[in-house]
Structure formats: structure tokens, C-alpha cells
Write a structure and sequence with these properties.
The complex is a heterodimer of chains A (about 110) and B (about 120). With about 110 residues, chain A is mainly β. Chain A is built from no helices and eleven strands. In chain B, the strands form two sheets. In chain B, strands 2, 4, 5, 6, 9, 10 and 11 form a seven-stranded mixed beta sheet that branches. In chain B, strands 1-3-8-7 form a four-stranded antiparallel beta sheet, with no helix packed on it. The termini of chain B are far apart. The chains are: A mainly beta (about 110), B mainly beta (about 120). Chains A and B meet through strand 4, strand 5 and strand 10 of A and strand 5 and strand 10 of B.
Chain lengths: ~110, ~120
Amino acid sequence: EIVMTQSPATLSVSPGERATLSCRASQSVGSSLAWYQQKPGQAPRLLIYGASTRATGIPARFSGVGSGTEFTLTISSLQSEDFAVYYCQQYTYWPLTFGGGTKVEIK
Amino acid sequence: EVQLLESGGGLVQPGGSLRLSCAASGFAFNSFAMSWLRQAPGKGLEWVSLINDSGSSTYYADSVRGRFTISRDNSKNTLYLQMNSLRAEDTAVYYCARVSVGATVTFDYWGQGTLVAVSS
């Protein structure tokens, strides 16, 4: 099973600042990496797939880079609605696996 | 508008069974693979099972293989998860999700979830 490790567990950021979230895979997953956002009491929302392609309707302030085992999600200028938990997911291998999440909180 | 509505959750004793349903609308259900995922209280996301568009292929997480069965009825636009031999560690919010079109196994639409609690 591919283990996905996200860091940091919690990120404290001020509105308007940049947030950088990391995701590492225990072995190469190529570019088969997705990012999701989840707010309290809500279902997750797909943000990024293919490591860097924004899903439909996702603002340009969200960007993803990486391949192989190292991936990064950047939120260029945090808005109030961006404070949430973010998960990465690999889809190269069965079983599909998620990282443990990074909580982005208001500083 | 794509909508996914789960039902069937509740409190069940260890060893018991439960069947979850997910009613889909707003898209061509029979053209999309579908999946179940879960989230234990205060924890992260865990993929549970996936079924292809026709229902001919299914996939399971090791933690549920042999106990859970995913199925679908394309005539009713409904996805199911039959859960047997339930354990305390199966307690979670269960989400159904649509698998994105194309060469990705990602989830572009999610239901709001249904809570399954396994306890005596």
C-alpha cells in the first residue's frame, strides 16, 4: 500500500498570505496525485488532479506541482473561505490512499 | 445539477449488517464509475470501494474486503454498499462519490454522507 504523508499537520497563516502544503508518497505515483479541500461538516471538494490541473471552478490561487514522490499545493493568497483541511490522494495503485491531512488555520 | 444522496446509516451492533444506498441525479449515472469512502470521527479520509460504470468490476480496501459488497442498479440510478460483520472500527461517515471522467481515479462529486455507528 502506498503511504501518503502530509506536512505540516497544521499550518497557521494570516489572510492574504501564501500557504504551502506538502505531500509525500512512499513510492513514485507519477503525476497521479489529487488534492481535496474539506470544511467542517462538509464533504470534500476536488481541487487538483494530475498533480497540477485545477478541477472545474477552482480559483487560480490554488496551484499544484510535483511528480514522483514529492508534491506541493500552494494557495497564493489565502481567503477566509480557504481555511480548511486539505488532503492529497494517489491513484496510481490500488488501494487508493489519502494523506492524513493538513489543517490550514487562521493565524 | 449533480446530486448524490446517501441513506441507510444508523446504529448497529458489532457483527451486524447494514445496507447503504446512494441515489444519484443530474448526470448519466450509467456512464460513471462510483465509489464509497469513509471518515471516522475526527480522522482523515479512507477509500472503501469502487465499482465501474456497468457494475462488472469492483475494487475494495483490504480493511473491508470479504465483509462489504458494492453494487449498483443503473435502472434506478442507485449505488449500494452492503456491510456485513461490522466492527467498531467501521464507525464513520460514509460518503458516496462520483469518479471523475477520464484517466483519473479521483472524485469530483460527493454526497453529504451518512453516519454508521457500530457499538453495543
